[in-house]
């Protein structure tokens, strides 16, 4: 397949490399990042999209996606599919899908879970919104870049699934970290805490798979000085997207709102920028009750 790939950063580069590895012809464009080996470099996003059957975007946010889509859509051949894998707001995803449909193109919002490790290993999970026809076209590529692709529904459904998942992630990370900090102050050994909670009703992905306490549980960014992993500012971005969406549809999400406020303080005032999102634990460790 001929594929255009726009946005070759931490996630996009390994995803594009996996498509090349599987024998696809990939033409890439990024404003700053270099093309990975085997990807042909285009001079513009439009050039990368010209003649492609599928154009994949992996960009920082919705505003950039809208700008890139405005350039790419007129360059695409009718029947081709624009597949955005970035995490963006639901409105941007729906607006881009509408523009693509008007131009006779398929469109998918297909954000991912699994991080840079999953992108490199080809084990991402894709949550996908768009038509069944567009999903069927891109499904073989999802199978190369990931281990699972769920067709969640109409345009925007993929982004909806992503921000709901990550709202749970932010909330449970905070809950796990504050529980460890409380356990410390109660004199409970962290390894015992892990042993109990990871096999009791408080278990979660943040406790069992990504434990925020160094030296406890499986290896995680906590064992590497809280180097990301999944950076606190990316968690904040996703929590803000969840609150933007909650406001738009008048959903009551008090825990998501609290989590967004706490990560905003952590990132913007308390030195959390550039650290893994599990560094909430040393933050709580050093604090007194407010
Ligand atoms: P990144 O900043 O490493 O990569 C984004 C790339 O887009 C950069 O290389 C940048 O130069 C390029 N870019 C920006 N504007 C552009 C434009 N107009 N035209 C072409 N290229 C442009 O970010 P990332 O970590 O690769 O994340 C990409 C997306 O994936 C984000 O939406 C993020 O929320 C999401 N995501 C990231 C992770 C993760 O762990 N890093 C996990 C899941 C989802």
Automatic annotation (TrEMBL):
Domain of life of the native organism: Bacteria
Active site: 162
EC number, as in UniProt: 1.1.1.31
GO biological process: L-valine catabolic process
UniProt xrefs under SUPFAM superfamilies: 6-phosphogluconate dehydrogenase C-terminal domain-like, NAD(P)-binding Rossmann-fold domains
Enzymatic class: oxidoreductase
Keywords, in A-Z order: Branched-chain amino acid catabolism, NAD, Oxidoreductase
Reaction catalysed by this enzyme: 3-hydroxy-2-methylpropanoate + NAD(+) = 2-methyl-3-oxopropanoate + NADH + H(+)
Pfam families linked to this entry: NAD_binding_11, NAD_binding_2
Biological pathway: Amino-acid degradation; L-valine degradation
Record's signal peptide: none
Coiled coil ranges: none
GO molecular function terms attached to this record: 3-hydroxyisobutyrate dehydrogenase activity; NAD binding; NADP binding
Domain 6-phosphogluconate dehydrogenase NADP-binding positions: 2-153
Domain annotation 3-hydroxyisobutyrate dehydrogenase-like NAD-binding: ranges: 156-281
Ranges annotated as spanning the membrane: none
Family of this protein: Belongs to the HIBADH-related family.
Name by which UniProt lists this protein: 3-hydroxyisobutyrate dehydrogenase
Source organism: Rhodobacter aestuarii
Native organism taxonomy: Bacteria, Pseudomonadati, Pseudomonadota, Alphaproteobacteria, Rhodobacterales
